[in-house]
Design a protein that fits this description.
The complex is a heterodimer of chains A (281) and B (186). Chain A has 8 helices and 10 strands. With 281 residues, chain A is α/β, with parallel strands linked by helices. In chain A, strands 4-2-5-10 form a 4-stranded mixed beta sheet. In chain A, strands 6-9-7-8 form a 4-stranded mixed beta sheet. The radius of gyration of chain A is 19 Å and the shape is globular. The two termini of chain A are 15 Å apart. In chain B, strands 2-3-4-5-7 form a 5-stranded mixed beta barrel. With 186 residues, chain B is an alpha/beta fold. The chains are: A alpha/beta (281), B alpha/beta (186). At the A-B interface, helix 3 of A face helix 5 and helix 6 of B.
Chain lengths: 281, 186
């Protein structure tokens, strides 16, 4: 049994939120640099150049890459031999979020009530926490601040087995087409296939956590990622939605077992600010 | 789409300037713009419906759909990129009716908004979504004018210098978001 002060979890979350908010990873930067090379539209290239210049300024000034500093989505893999001391996991995560959004001059975007008074909580809490219990005595924490502009363009459909691969391709492509310029293209598309209604949404979000450009280890799904990317990039939406070849930087699919009577599919769209950071403690 | 012209314009906007802009043109904007998002729009339209005085003038003005980050000490403003515009669509025709001439945001506008832009000879400008730190460098002053209780959604007056934007919907109703992808789709 390993005793771990909850404060350590909180501080780790704070550091990861700050890291993810002011700089995207090398995976995203290199995808954007590749996109400038490929893009044929002058306006599209202009948008990509703005995006790259923005990343440099954010890093230089230690400010957020985007004013929408997102919902703090936090994935925790908690070793079952770890005993948290001095507080609950959710309190620790929220304390980390509170610290980071205050000290990093990040925008606080969470309202306490979704429908009626919509008053801002003032510290970007509560976080959305996804907890998984794993063997061992380590804790893996991944933070992915998620902007609502792209979250709003996401979709879930309960498909049937007969819809097959073509059904999945058509649904994902239609979702990106409908989103058009709204989610700040070029986008990253996370796709979940299988599980159930709530499980498939989480699969799609977990797909976005993978390094951009990584492939599903199952060759059939890796091929599907390539096919979806090609189809999406034929839409012509382009950077900023002004028309162009690069509508998506990548498509990442995660799959899971499902029920004999169904094939849930979820599409979680992420903007080009594909922010994520993780650490093992 | 061929690349449009680069024009230097200033806000508030006059009819002649608005009339000269074409979808696809790039502009560098100087002058004064006001910020408003969903909650501020709701209050503005409720004030109009109640016949109350508005906290800002509308005639010829430009509204930027943005909720900036807090400013670091010594900075004018935090990162300040555009938010998605369609959420303001329900309120926009009323504001255009009252003289609003320009909007800066990102993302598609509905048919009613495009019709109102054409009717009132206004313009919808797109700023690069997610280029918040870059765009903040074109903002040289800011102050909260109203609705301070809304925090990031407060109504602010911004002074901008060479703020870069693209004409998305021009006064004739042409829409770059529809023409651009048509040119590149296959």
């Amino acid at each position: 049994m390993r005793l771990l002060p909850a404060e350590v979890v909180g501080n780790t979350v704070a550091e990861l939120v700050l890291e993810a908010s002011v700089a995207v990873g090398a995976d995203v930067r290199s995808a954007l640099e590749g996109a400038v090379e490929r893009e044929e539209s002058p306006m599209g290239r202009g948008v990509l150049e703005d995006i790259l210049a923005n990343l440099d300024i954010a890093r230089e000034d230690r400010v957020a890459v985007c004013q929408d500093c997102g919902t703090a989505v936090v994935f925790v893999e908690l070793g079952q031999e770890v005993l948290l001391t001095g507080g609950s996991l959710e309190e620790a995560v929220d304390e980390g979020v509170r610290q980071a959004y205050r000290d990093g001059y990040l925008r606080k975007s969470i309202v306490a009530d979704p429908l009626y008074d919509r008053v801002n909580t003032g510290d970007n809490t509560p976080a959305v926490v996804h907890l998984r219990s794993v063997p061992g005595e380590r804790v893996r924490i991944a933070v992915a601040p998620k902007g609502m502009g792209s979250e709003n363009m996401s979709a879930l459909r309960m498909m049937k087995a007969a819809d097959g691969e073509e059904g999945v391709l058509a649904f994902v492509t239609e979702t990106v087409r409908t989103a058009g310029p709204n989610p700040c293209p070029p986008v990253v598309v996370g796709v979940g296939i299988g599980s159930d209604f709530e499980g498939v949404a989480l699969l799609a979000k977990r797909a976005l956590l993978r390094p951009l450009g990584s492939r599903n280890p199952d060759g059939r799904y890796a091929d599907l990622e390539g096919k979806i990317l090609e189809r999406v990039n034929r839409l012509g939406i382009g950077p900023g939605g002004y028309g162009g070849r690069v509508t998506a930087l990548g498509v990442q699919v995660e799959h899971a077992p499902t029920h004999i009577a169904g094939m849930p599919v979820a599409v979680n769209i992420c903007c080009h600010a594909d922010r994520k950071a993780e650490r093992l403690i | 789409m061929t690349e449009g012209t680069l024009l230097r314009i200033s806000a508030p906007l006059d009819g002649k300037t608005v009339g000269s802009l074409r979808a696809g043109d790039r502009v560098l904007l100087d002058g004064t713009v006001y910020t408003a998002r969903d909650a501020a729009h709701k209050r503005l339209v409720e004030a109009i419906e109640a016949g109350a005085t508005l906290p800002i003038p509308l005639e010829g003005q430009v509204i930027y759909y943005v909720g900036p980050c807090p400013a670091r000490p010594g900075a004018v403003i935090g990162p300040a990129g555009p938010t998605t515009s369609y959420r303001m669509d329900p309120y926009t025709p009323v504001l255009l009716e009252r003289g609003l001439k320009g909007m800066i945001g990102k993302g598609k506008r509905g048919p009613e908004v495009i019709a109102a832009i054409r009717k009132h000879r206004a313009v919808y400008l797109g700023a690069t979504g997610g280029a918040a730190a870059l765009l903040a460098r074109s903002i040289t002053a800011q102050r909260i004018v109203a609705y301070g209780d809304l925090g990031p959604e407060a109504l602010r007056e911004l002074t901008v210098e060479a703020f870069p934007a693209t004409v998305v919907v021009d006064a004739s109703g042409r829409d770059l978001y529809s023409e651009g992808p048509q040119a590149y789709g296959r």
